[in-house]
């Protein structure tokens, strides 16, 4: 069972000390998941900012309040983003320009973020439309998606035009402590976590989160991607590398203990979904839209529908590429999936299984 360092969380724009020189800062998000956790690491000559918040609403004003209240004696020294998603990089360009400091990120995350951070309404192309049709959305739903698309430039300040590369196994020395870069994949291309063995603290970003599970999605930009395979490999790598009793500082919810237990749960959670999807495709072929209720019981609309559909396709791609599901295109241009294993119904009857259908929408 997971245990939590605090029973509550700081207000937006306020900080809480995790340990000397490590501060927890929360910023608001304009969605059901209404916050992101950022972390401030004190060095001998300045502060490191780990993740930045989204470039929307009061985030910039809240940052100015943090500077005024907490950074009077030492300036910002560096900005580091764990991955390219806008709640983690939205303010990176502004922060680096304001303080004239370097930006740290992995190579894949930087270049993907540089590209996606500049997308606007005109970047919804025919390939993205085709991906939606392949998933089972009808023409009206695709049209609505096109009309509502704004791109990430609306919520992301222009990213810094240079960066300092983080690589797996490299170390950053901050206030005399060595923080090892630990790379995870699946939620994003080359997600950087930071682990300090002297403090036994892991800054996990979105790679490990309590209470909710990270979104593992396929998007129109890489329709044949297999992020779930990368996710499984990363969870195994984290469990082999990191101690079970590490204090985990996640990007959402609250700091917790129970790293290995959480990693095992995440593997089982996705394995249950895979089995449930394969079972649902035994007697007739199904589209990704048809299969959403297998993974999600709650009503889905708007952004939640897009995230859920991307996650469903990630599971279907995993099964298809392993040869467990057959896939064909029907007359409407939609992918339809059918189990490739004739022995599956018998095996299912012998196993007590059940997808965790009440799992919340992921980040």
TrEMBL record:
<dbReference type="Pfam" id="PF21221">
    <property type="entry name" value="B_lactamase-like_C"/>
</dbReference>
<feature type="domain" description="Metallo-beta-lactamase">
    <location>
        <begin position="35"/>
        <end position="252"/>
    </location>
</feature>
<dbReference type="InterPro" id="IPR036866">
    <property type="entry name" value="RibonucZ/Hydroxyglut_hydro"/>
</dbReference>
<protein>
    <submittedName>
        <fullName>MBL fold metallo-hydrolase</fullName>
    </submittedName>
</protein>
<dbReference type="InterPro" id="IPR036388">
    <property type="entry name" value="WH-like_DNA-bd_sf"/>
</dbReference>
<dbReference type="InterPro" id="IPR001279">
    <property type="entry name" value="Metallo-B-lactamas"/>
</dbReference>
<dbReference type="InterPro" id="IPR050662">
    <property type="entry name" value="Sec-metab_biosynth-thioest"/>
</dbReference>
<dbReference type="Pfam" id="PF00753">
    <property type="entry name" value="Lactamase_B"/>
</dbReference>
<dbReference type="InterPro" id="IPR048933">
    <property type="entry name" value="B_lactamase-like_C"/>
</dbReference>
């Amino acid at each position: 069972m997971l245990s939590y360092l605090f029973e509550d969380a700081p207000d937006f724009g306020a900080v809480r000390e995790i340990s000397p020189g490590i501060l927890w800062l929360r910023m608001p998000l304009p969605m059901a998941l209404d916050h992101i956790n950022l972390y401030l690491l004190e060095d001998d000559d300045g502060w490191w900012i780990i993740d930045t918040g989204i470039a929307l609403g009061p985030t910039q004003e809240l940052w100015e309040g943090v500077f005024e209240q907490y950074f009077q004696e030492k300036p910002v020294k560096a900005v580091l983003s764990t991955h390219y998603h806008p709640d983690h990089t939205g303010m990176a360009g502004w922060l680096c320009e304001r303080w004239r400091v370097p930006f740290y990120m992995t190579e894949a995350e930087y270049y993907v973020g540089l590209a996606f951070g500049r997308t606007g309404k005109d970047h919804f192309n025919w390939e993205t439309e085709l991906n939606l049709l392949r998933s089972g959305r009808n023409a009206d739903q695709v049209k609505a998606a096109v009309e509502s698309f704004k791109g990430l430039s609306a919520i992301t300040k222009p990213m810094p035009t240079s960066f300092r590369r983080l690589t797996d196994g490299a170390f950053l020395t901050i206030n005399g402590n060595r923080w090892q870069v630990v790379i995870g994949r699946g939620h994003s291309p080359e997600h950087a976590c930071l682990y300090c063995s002297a403090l036994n603290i892991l800054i996990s970003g979105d790679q490990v989160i309590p209470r909710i599970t990270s979104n593992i999605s396929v998007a129109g930009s890489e329709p044949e991607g297999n992020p779930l395979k990368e996710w499984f490999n990363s969870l195994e790598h984290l469990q082999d590398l990191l101690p079970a009793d590490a204090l985990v500082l996640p990007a959402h919810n609250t700091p917790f203990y129970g790293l290995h237990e959480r990693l095992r749960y995440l593997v089982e959670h996705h394995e249950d979904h895979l089995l449930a999807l394969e079972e649902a495709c035994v007697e007739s072929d199904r589209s990704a839209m048809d299969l959403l209720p297998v993974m999600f019981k709650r009503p889905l609309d708007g952004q939640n529908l897009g995230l859920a559909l991307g996650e469903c396709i990630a599971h279907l791609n995993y099964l298809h590429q392993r040869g467990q599901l057959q896939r064909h295109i029907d007359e409407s241009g939609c992918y339809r999936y059918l189990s490739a294993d004739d022995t599956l119904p018998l095996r299912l009857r012998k196993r007590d299984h059940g997808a965790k259908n009440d799992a919340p929408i992921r980040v």
